[in-house]
Amino acid sequence: MRGQQSPRLRARPFTAACAAAGIGAALLFAGPARADEHMTLVTKIDVGGNGLGAFDISFVDPATGLYVLSDRTNGSVDMVDAATDKFIGRVSGFQGVVLTNGVANNNLSGPDGVLIIQHKEVWAGDGDSTVKVINLKTQKIVDTISTGGKFRADEMSWDSRHHILAVANNADTPPYLTMINTDTHKVLGHVVMDGTNGTPDATNGLEQSQWSPETGMFYVSVPQVGSDPSVGGFSVIDPSTMKVVTTYLVQNCSPAGLTLGPRHRALLGCSASFGTSPNVITQSVVVDIRDGGIVANIPQVGGSDEVWYDRGSNHYYLAARNHADNTGKISPILGVVDADTNMFDGGPATSTTAHSVAADRISRRVFVPIGFVPPTAAAGTDPTNPCPTKGCIAVYVPSGRDVAFSDHDHDHDDGFGKEASR
């Protein structure tokens, strides 16, 4: 790892507002969307090394204020202080960008999925079908766990109750989830999504997953179920049995991102557009995870990969790199959706590379990695890119509003351990 200081696993201040929420005082809600809710670009973090060109998933641990990013250009997990926007350093030892016939092969490249467990370890998938464990105290890879596939171990989520990690082997055929005990580092089993044993016939991989402390279930987005590309869904997996309970289908979405919001809701980040000009459909969908019911269709924003729910602002953030209008014209943005009203609050222009997003609910910062424009690219490529030369981690903050705590901001098990010590 390079950098002048190690990650500061600091206890964040337990404010009076947090304390009131934690003991069940009257809860504040974000309220209706307002015209003055917008995101402002406040800084651009240079990660050094070879710059930032290719990357994958990012994650924030709100208890420690640590932001981590899967940086393929440098073959590392990069670390940033989420309160100060300071680049701390990187842990190398990953596949990096792997070329096949001179072209980057995402299925073999890494790191990929990444998250922080118990505020002490970073778990990151790699392109060789392994999951690597980084000890934040020693800043070293301390274990490498095979998931048994041929291609990358990708997006992941963690059941903090049973200490089970679910990681998607999305590029293998058929795709599957690998379940790993994070105490013993042993593989517990696989959930193969091949249309048998109650699983969906996942014909286009698997994407972002989450674990809900309220239901005790994993939820994973399935971009395509069967032969029809307009039919996708999300599957519910019981970690105790490692079986699919059910799969709920959605139309004209191709779910990639999935994040859990308030009141048993989830936002699905739809990655694809459907139809032809002037009737192109690009959307995001809010669903009820208890029965799969559609709570809201949000046609103003789509083409997303990773999505994030921020309890601090009670908003969803969408890495909508393929956001398109009704004619199919691509205009990449950081999409913002009010989780109370499910209304689209707009979003600043980003980049066609901006497919990753994570927010820190304490500092109110939203982190969006941006890849550099290749020197060989044609003039005018990616015109809204805020850091075209070296790439960067663009940092946005909501402005023009008083941020209120949502109904999920009380002291409870949020999937990464209780945070009463902040």
What's the short version?
With 422 residues, this protein is mainly beta.
Report the structural category.
Answer: mainly beta
Which whole number gives the mean pLDDT?
Answer: 88
Total number of helices: 1
Number of strands: 29
Quickly name the level 1 CATH class. Mainly Beta
Assign an overall shape. Answer: globular
CATH-derived topology: Methylamine Dehydrogenase, Chain H
Number of domains: 1
Unreliable stretches (pLDDT < 50, length at least 5) are 1-36, 401-422
Verbal overview:
This protein is an all-beta fold. The chain has a single domain, classed as YVTN repeat-like/Quinoprotein amine dehydrogenase (Methylamine Dehydrogenase, Chain H, 7 Propeller). The chain is 2% helix and 38% strand. A hairpin with a 4-residue loop joins strand 3 and strand 4 (76-81). The radius of gyration is 20 Å and the shape is globular. The two termini are 27 Å apart. Residues 1-36 and 401-422 have low confidence and may be disordered.
What descriptors fit this protein?
single chain, 422 residues, mainly beta, Methylamine Dehydrogenase, Chain H, four-stranded antiparallel β-sheet, 2% helix, globular, disordered N terminus, disordered C terminus
List the helices and strands and how they pair.
Layout: H1 16-22, E1 38-45, E2 55-61, E3 66-71, E4 76-81, E5 86-92, E6 99-100, E7 103-104, E8 114-117, E9 121-125, E10 130-135, E11 140-146, E12 156-159, E13 164-169, E14 176-181, E15 187-192, E16 209-211, E17 218-222, E18 231-238, E19 243-251, E20 255-260, E21 265-270, E22 284-288, E23 294-298, E24 307-310, E25 315-320, E26 333-338, E27 358-360, E28 365-370, E29 392-399
Antiparallel strand pairs: 1-29, 2-3, 3-4, 4-5, 6-7, 8-9, 9-10, 10-11, 12-13, 13-14, 14-15, 16-17, 17-18, 18-19, 20-21, 21-22, 22-23, 24-25, 25-26, 27-28, 28-29
